[in-house]
Amino acid sequence: MDGETRIPDFERIETTVLGGLLRPGKLYLAFVGLTLVCLLIGVVAYSQIILVSIGVAGINNPVHWGVFIINFVFWVGLAHSGTLISAILYLFQARWRTSINRIAEAMTVVAIMTAGLFPLVHLGRVWLVYYMIPYPSTRELWPNFRSPLLWDVFAITTYMLVSIMFFYVGLIPDLATVRDRSNGIIKRVYSALALGWRGSHRQWHHYEMAYMLLAALATPLVISVHSVVSWDFAVSLIPGWHSTIFAPYFVAGAIFSGCAMIIVILLPMRKFLGLHELITVRHFSLLCKMLVFMSLIITYSYFAEFFIAWYTGNDIEQHSFYNRAFGTYGPLFWLMIVLNSLLPLTLLSARLRENLKYVYVVAVGVVIGMWVERFVIIVTSLSQDYDPYAWGTYAPTLVEWGILLGSFGLFFFLFAVLAKIFPVVAIGEMKALVRSQSGESEHG
Amino acid sequence: MNKKNTLSRRRFLKSTGLMGAGAMLPLGRSRAGVILRGLIPDEEIIPGISYWLNSTCAECSAGCGVKVRVREGNAVKIEGNEQHPINHGGLCARGQSALQALYSPARIRSPLLRNNEGQLAAVSWFDAMDKLGARLRVSSGRNAGKVAILTRHVTGSLKALLDSQTSSLPRLKVISHELTDYAAMSAANKLCFGIEGIPTYSLDRVRSIVSFGADLFETWLSPVSNAYGFAEARHVVDGMPWRLIQFESHLSLTGANADERYCCPPGAETLIVLAIAHEMLKNSAMPPEQAEKWRRALQSFSMERAARASGVSVDTLMGVANRLRNQTPSLAVAGGPTCRSKYGTVIQIGVNLINIAAGNYGKTLSFERFEHAPVGTHRQLTDLVEEMEAGRVEALIVHDTNPEFAFPEPERWRAAVKRVPLTVQLAPVRDSASESYDIILPIHHWLERWDLVEPRSGLHCVQQPTIAPWCDSVHPGEAFLQIMNALMEKRPEPNGHYEEFLRGQWNKIRGGESANVEFDDFWQEVLASGGYWERPTARNVQLDARAADAIPSVELAFPEPGTITALPITTIRYGDGRQTGRPWLHEMPDPITTLVWDTPLLISPETAKKWKCRSGDMVRIECGGDTITVPAYVQPGTSDAVAAMPLGVPSNAYAQYHYAADSHLLHRLAGHIDTSSGSISWVGAPVEFKGVVGRVRLARLQGHNSQKGRGIAQTTAISETGQSEQHPAEEAIVEADLYPKHEHPVHDWGMVIDLSRCIGCGACAVACQAENNIYVVGRKQCLNGRELSWLRIERFIDRGRIVFLPMLCQHCEHAPCETVCPVYAALHSSEGLNQQIYNRCVGTRYCANNCPYKVRRFNWFTYKVDPPLERQFNPDVSIRTRGIMEKCTFCVQRIREHKEIAKVEGRALRDGEVVPACAQSCPTHAITFGDLNDGTSEVATRFSDPRGYTIFSELNTQPSIVYLRRECLADGTGTESV
């Protein structure tokens, strides 16, 4: 394969990458327009919640959590792969990450921002959300530190701050490159953002140390954030939620969906920004391998959950899982199995891995499958828990679908904006990679 | 009419509102201050203090004693009067809902007169009465037609007034009419004993009751009294357990609580009653020649015949007869829709015979007091309709009843009304027929007036105003007096007011046994106790063998086997249908179907199979010549031979405050009349199935019928010899706690709910709703699963027995909701209460998810009530708005109120002083509440009852509510599904 073996020179890297920052084309504007329309739909839907009440959603008694919490977990999950690819793969020195880490990080930042909105959307009285922040009030009222929701507040904020920092630190050398190639007001803006980067040896030395430390700081967060999110469920006593497997299960699921989402975003970007030389089929193949690996973990978790439910001999637990597979929402469960456990297995075939269209379909399937997985976990468990008198069902309303659509609109809009103002591939790192590879023999 | 006259008349009318006696009574029909001045002197009214006024419920004929809580001029809560001999402190849901009629948006605000355009328009009292008087005078004369008064069941003073006037006015014809009359009972008693009246029943002394269709706990005679008696009887006496045996065609609440329940087609109960009566004659103490006469009359009614018709085995029927004979004192009763048949009187004669043979008179039922005052029969109403049709009725005055609803042929009634030149309605609230009258005169609601009622003979109960009448209404007695004065063309005398009459009536009562007591003292006594109870008059019964002649020897005609009969039924929710305009009742789940708002056609699973339909299908049926489309609901326990429908179909619109216009099956009766009593047979026309035409969602609150072996509702078996089953004590979970134990230094509130006493009537749920300002959310939200009630009755089956279980916040010591709330809106109080701080709640709803009992309720919207219903709100409980979680507080406002009272009085709280609304209203006293720290309190002793268990104890939530297992007879018959 031609694109894979040819090593571009520095100049080509810069022009290719920075080409994305040029004046927006029609296609770009159309895409941004589409995302804005989706976002607007979401805003209109949300205004219903504010103007009328949270009751316009389909959530009810006993399913008090619905699409909003599903979206929250879904977006937090998507926010995972960025840090995983940037930080963990960096620490493991998996160099292939270089081509895609910027996109992954940007995705993290945008996804965590989107995710962070959902706990607010979901509140009955969002105007009092500051009660959840530990601030010294004259009444000496503090939030309840025993509540997993409060842990969420901390986990999400921490993760968001660290990923923004990580994203920004990684950007500094590239911002300097943009600065050097621009003029006028734009030059001044990028100058400020580049924090006086000169590319001196000393600066590079400190930069790499800082980057590594941040990577080391971010790595445990990848594990902790979704563990904490999973504890929202695991710490409760709802059958189907109350399970020790939840933290690793959710982390694996998050990485799984994140990898899929990277593929979903990367493929069109590669096409429209002409990044074929930098992001090659090999990258997708490697991402697919990760996808398969995560899919296996997820499948094992599904199995383990059911096995443990059966093995406990606890009627209530058993019923909860029986209901998950064969109850009202049974079809969704089987859809989830197909999309998350079966389809990704086909990527074990190298031929299919290199068929990017097929990979794309599978990746979209996984993104949908992981959303459905959260629906299955959250809704089926709540719909039939302890007291059969209180059992019920839940169906999302248009408002909830509208807000889901709006969140995609917000995500892609922010992403498109970031892609327009920042280089989508880490130029500095790419150059370093190219140098090391051209110096050495050509192996992966 | 000159001005002077006008004024005097108006003033006269104005003074008609408030009746009463002595210095206690106010004289103006005016606003709250005036009323309260009469009752509690102005200077003594303290804002924030509740005043309790005794009165008597008029929601049905039972006449339970109530006390009404008045706060700042508003009546806010009705509770049962503990001193009252009828209800002993409990009050049913329908009685409690009277407040929603008092403050109903459909109250008639002023007199309405049909104007020239044919529209009802508001007029002044003067104009209305002037017109009425003029019309009555015009119609007077030699050949004057009749003036008919059609009234609801009235007793005491109003009845005395009407009786006194009819004797002097031959033109006047007074008919009192109740949909659920008991004419067959009084007719049978007249035939059997020469006593025309209904005896009072003392269920509390009973060891075995056999009920032929009588809905003892729903509407039958005096349901709260029956429920109380039943619960009192349910304990083992000298090694002998109680037993309730029910024969019925649809699953009633009474049947659900029965120890043995037999489902039989309509008509079969006649044969069963007569066969059992026949059997019991065998070794009764009756004189031989009398017994012979009865035996001859009953000879064709054999056990075999009854068994064939009912599907119940001969052995079982013999067993029932033996129980009645041996497990004494026993009681046989018959009632309900199937016993309102054309053989109604025959059934009642059979029942009388059984009670005589078992020697029950004087023990479990007696004529010492008569239940209800006599009411007219269907035949009398039909006579009236015929006279109206013939144009012989000049004026029709309808008092607080809706004949268009209660008369089985509404079209005929409407046509007959059109033939009457003057029609007047006296009612507090508009109903479906209001549009058809010429003059509508608003009368005081019973919570706004003084009166003397006598629901059981010798029990003289007081009704007193609790709020100032807020509509331009008068006392019905005053309105009657006015009308009669107009009829007699009399000028009103100075003493011719109803209040004077009423005072005279009370004076007469004092004149009996307490003639030497000053009236004021007597009156104080009456107000304090809710009435004056005369000593009962002993009456012996002597069976008259001539009654045997009433038993038809010919073959009885019953519905053909295989036909499905339409059967209107009375339920605890809507009773006889008059309370269908009350939002609380709409949202109270029917205990059997657990449906709110909807009243579908109840069919048996077998019928459903035959019709190929399931619950929620709209079925088209042909019945009594009409085709109607109704939702079907498959209710196990319904006989295959009936399709039953509760009386009172509310419109699905939220704001429906009047009688339901279309009661469906009641208007599709077969038209058979019981010739001996003159009442109409409720057993309706045959139902022809015409197909399923669609589907509708029914608002059912119970998510799943089975408790799936989770031990939520538990039973304990009682053997034939009264031995109860032993249960292992719950194992305390002793594991290291992550958090320190809660300290309860002063009080530790707890509750014990005795499932043996709970009959599932739902009075507690409505009491809770009234006390805690819980909104009615409407059918649509109920369909979405957004019901708001804090307390619900769950209905499960344990070991084949139906168990009703009130589920409310368990106030766990280890509350799962408390740990997960991020803002401490849910937290534990130092008194063991699980509190919800509304102002702090941000609405994450995590607490509700994490509650295994699912008792937390979320305000999905800011709900509203139609004014002036908000006057009912309890000022001690804050109103919640959207986005807030709420739940049972153990009535913390009552705890606070009594703690403050105790503090002011400088003493400790007494046991039993704090009673939450649910416990107070419970007709069977199933709920005990109190301080667990006080080792001598009732709740503390019952907490360790061997029957006790906590729900989901394996979760270690450590609830503050202990349930006592329902005692079930080991040999009773069970139910597989409900």
TrEMBL record, chain A:
Pfam families: NrfD. This is Hydrogenase. The keyword Transmembrane applies. Keywords: Cell membrane, Membrane, Transmembrane, Transmembrane helix. It is found in: Cell membrane. The lineage of its organism: Bacteria, Pseudomonadati, Candidatus Hydrogenedentota, Candidatus Abyssobacteria. One of its GO terms (cellular component) is plasma membrane. Belongs to the NrfD family. The chain crosses the membrane at residues 27-59, 65-92, 104-133, 153-172, 210-229, 249-269, 290-312, 332-352, 359-383, 403-427. It is a multi-pass membrane protein.
UniProtKB/TrEMBL annotation, chain B:
Residues 50-106 form the 4Fe-4S Mo/W bis-MGD-type domain. GO terms for molecular function: 4 iron, 4 sulfur cluster binding; metal ion binding; oxidoreductase activity. Pfam families: Fer4_11 (PF13247), Fer4_2 (PF12797), Molybdop_Fe4S4 (PF04879). Keywords: 4Fe-4S, Iron, Iron-sulfur, Metal-binding, Molybdenum, Oxidoreductase, Signal. The keyword ATP-binding does not apply. The keyword DNA damage does not apply. Residues 749-779, 800-832 form the 4Fe-4S ferredoxin-type domain. InterPro entries: 4Fe4S_Fe-S-bd, Asp_de-COase-like_dom_sf, Mopterin_OxRdtase_4Fe-4S_dom, Prok_Mopterin_Oxidored, TAT_signal. This is 4Fe-4S dicluster domain-containing protein.
